[in-house]
Amino acid sequence: MVATDDTIDLREWVDMLRRRRKTFLVVAGALFVLSLVVALSWPSTYRSVATILIEDQDVPADLVQPAVTTSAVERIESISQQVMTRANLTAIVEKHDMFVEAREEDRLGPALDGMRRRIKVDTVDVDVVDPRSGRAGRTAIAFTISYDDRNAELTQRVTEELATLFLEQNRRSRSDSATETVVFLTAEAELLSDQIGDLEAQLAAFKEQNVTGLPELADMNLRLLDNTERHLVNIDSQIRALEERRHILEGDLAQVTP
Question: 18 pLDDT exceeds 60?
Answer without folding.
Answer: yes
